[in-house]
Design brief:
By secondary structure, this protein is α+β, with helices and mostly antiparallel strands. The protein has one domain: tt1808, chain A (Alpha-Beta Complex). The strands form two sheets. Strands 1-2-3-4 form a four-stranded mixed sheet, covered by helices on one side. Strands 5-6 form a two-stranded antiparallel ribbon. The longest helix is centred in the N-terminal third of the chain and has 13 residues.
Length: 79
Amino acid sequence: MPLLAVEILSPRQGIDEILGKFKAYFALSVKSCWLIIPPNKSITVYSTAEQFKTFGTNDTEVNDDKLDIRLSIPRLFGK
């Protein structure tokens, strides 16, 4: 199993559908899940299905403390 799962919200998906996938991923021992919402330029990092933190345009980087990942938000969204 991977340590990280990344889902990008598409117009055809609902957030509930993705959160259902995250619950399944965590049950399979994935350590962290990211939900990227391009129109909002936001990334929500889930460390459990119920525990998460959202990063957006007011933040300079995404921090995934569980996997020790730090990425620049402007670079992720092409600025």
